[in-house]
Design brief:
Order of helices and strands of chain B: HEHHEHEHHHHHHEEEHEHEHHHHEE
Number of helices of chain A: 0
Distance between the termini of chain B: 21 Å
Radius of gyration of chain B: 20 Å
Number of helices of chain B: 16
Strand order of the largest sheet of chain A: 1-2-3-5-4
Helix content of chain A: under 10%
CATH architecture of the domain at 14-112 and 224-242 in chain B: 3-Layer(aba) Sandwich
Largest sheet of chain B: 4 strands, mixed
Oligomer: heterodimer
Strand order of the largest sheet of chain B: 2-1-3-6
Number of domains of chain A: 1
CATH topology of the domain at 14-112 and 224-242 in chain B: Peroxisomal Thiolase, Chain A, domain 1
Largest sheet of chain A: 5 strands, mixed, barrel
Shape of chain B: globular
Strand content of chain B: 15-25%
Structural class of chain A: mainly beta
Number of strands of chain B: 10
Strand content of chain A: 35-45%
CATH architecture of chain A: Beta Barrel
């Protein structure tokens, strides 16, 4: 937090100023869809849900995060307002965005 | 280099492929070359560990080539493993500590099925925060594609033009995986279903060209290939013993950037490409307009388009139009990927950056036959790792 910049997900070193003094910060989880794709040839562990949509979201606080998109394909567009949720997959929590 | 291919190397291991390439390089030297003359060996390879269960490739190859005890390294920078190996070889010879080095690149991918290959390639991305979030490699480049389309109004037909051109070039390259134009492939496939295609776009827009990650389709993506390539780098004094027509390294550049696409400032350009190119141009005292032809990293059609902008051949946003207008064809203003590129020549991951240098070498010596660029002066090789976390650039000249 030395330079006041945010980074998501958490790291050991700040990519902006190099400081090791980082503190946790809660993000609201709301943002704008910057880009997206519909994946037809999936990673093998996501075979059962293919085809699925994935995108990069610019959270309102600044950082960009990648996640699955639980949005109807017809609604997908750059600029769509989305909100984050987390779902369990292969014993991990993965980010999933829904339209607001 | 070996031929790059998805089937013919079925019974060979990676070590055989690289030995084949190295032996060909050695026997192609005008005044003769003994492998034992090399002072060091650099081997670019992305993942023999996963593809073949074999690590420790540097030592393995020194052994297999019969050139122990020279120092030998395996270099990994995802799809830029080859280019990174070339840069390290250049640094080694430039240092004056080594007179001659062998640089090879190899990947034997076809031992695994497509699903497992997809998983393995995703290791070049941020496994925890990109792949876990569903992104495959085509998915990441598809995300860049959509961002580019959105920002500049580029379109898929312009991407298709790049694929068409690369197949036309590869038809003239006996080392290429595909030696047919897209229209020829289309009619071969169509024949089995009683369909004739007259316009390749008709084929590319059909279900025969399925979507891999929207908006990228099968023919926007480079194939899975086995293959190897090798070059010999030497000091000027040594080079002149080997040949009367050496090709000179004018300069090189390399840069790193965020691993994950979501951490980049701009999704429509690869910053590390711009930086590596800037270094290379500056230390060679050259500008983009001085480059006669370029081998660029077209892992996907969008990557070639973005590279043509990042390397300064066209303004940001203009790469698509330029490709559509034929400006990057063999007879165009700046021939790009005269050998067919990754798309049609193939992309055995670790071999690619080295194979680009093989092509540049041959083009500058006028040895490319039907795909020969007219009287080239400077050639550029551009190799990207992942979505742009590593980029290497080298400029060569006569």
């Amino acid at each position: 937090m030395e330079c006041g910049e945010l980074v998501a997900p958490p790291r050991m070193l700040c990519p902006h100023c190099g400081s090791e003094k980082l503190e946790p910060y809660s993000l609201r989880g709301v943002g704008e869809l910057v880009t997206f794709t519909v994946v037809h040839v999936p990673l093998t562990r996501y075979r059962e849900v293919a085809p699925y949509s994935a995108g990069i979201v610019k959270l309102e606080e600044g950082p960009m995060v990648a996640g699955f998109l639980k949005v109807d394909e017809g609604r997908l567009r750059v600029g769509l307002q989305v909100e984050i949720d987390f779902e369990e997959s292969n014993r991990k929590m993965v980010p999933v965005f829904k339209a607001v | 280099m070996t031929r790059f291919h998805h089937k013919i190397h079925e019974n060979k291991q990676g070590r055989d492929l690289l030995a084949e390439a190295v032996l060909e390089a050695a026997s192609s030297v005008d005044n003769g070359f003994q492998l034992r003359e090399a002072d060091a060996l650099y081997v670019g390879c992305f993942s023999s560990d996963v593809f073949e269960g074999q690590a420790h490739l540097g030592a393995l190859m020194a052994d297999y080539l019969g050139i122990t005890p020279i120092p030998s390294y395996r270099v990994e920078a995802a799809c830029a493993s080859g280019g990174a190996s070339i840069n390290l070889g250049i640094l080694a010879v430039s240092s004056g500590l080594f007179d001659v080095v062998l640089v090879g690149g190899v990947e034997k991918m076809r031992g695994l099925d497509t699903g497992k290959v997809t998983d393995t390639l995703a290791m070049a991305a941020d496994v925890s925060y990109e792949a876990a979030a569903g992104f495959t490699f085509p998915g990441l480049y598809a995300a860049m594609t959509r961002a580019h389309f959105n920002k500049y109004g580029t379109n898929w037909r312009q991407l298709a033009a790049i694929s068409l051109k690369n197949h036309e070039n590869a038809k003239k390259n006996p080392k290429a995986q595909y030696q047919e134009t897209i229209l020829e492939i289309a009619n071969k496939i169509g024949q089995r279903k009683g369909i004739t295609f007259e316009d390749p776009y008709e084929f590319l827009e059909s279900d025969f060209n399925p979507v891999i990650a929207d908006p990228l389709r099968l023919f926007d993506c480079c194939p899975i290939s086995d293959g190897a390539a090798a070059v010999i780098l030497a000091s000027e004094e040594k080079a002149r013993q080997f040949t009367d027509t050496p090709v000179y390294v004018q300069s090189f550049g390399q840069a790193s950037d965020t691993l994950a696409l979501q951490d980049r400032a701009d999704l429509t350009s690869i910053k590390a490409s711009k930086l590596a190119a800037k270094q290379a141009y500056a230390s060679a005292g050259l500008e983009p307009k001085d480059i006669s032809f370029a081998c660029v990293h077209d892992c996907f059609t969008i990557a070639e388009m973005i590279a043509s902008e990042d390397l300064g051949f066209f303004s940001p946003g203009e790469g698509g139009k330029a490709a559509e207008q034929g400006r990057t064809g063999l007879q165009g203003d700046i021939p790009i990927n005269p050998d067919g590129g990754l798309k049609a020549k193939g992309h055995p991951v670790g071999a690619t950056g080295v194979a680009m240098v093989v092509e540049v070498f041959k083009q500058l010596r006028g040895e490319c036959g039907e795909r020969q660029v007219d009287d080239p002066v400077y050639g550029l090789a551009h190799n990207v790792g992942g979505t742009g976390a590593t980029v290497t650039v080298q400029i060569f000249g006569r």
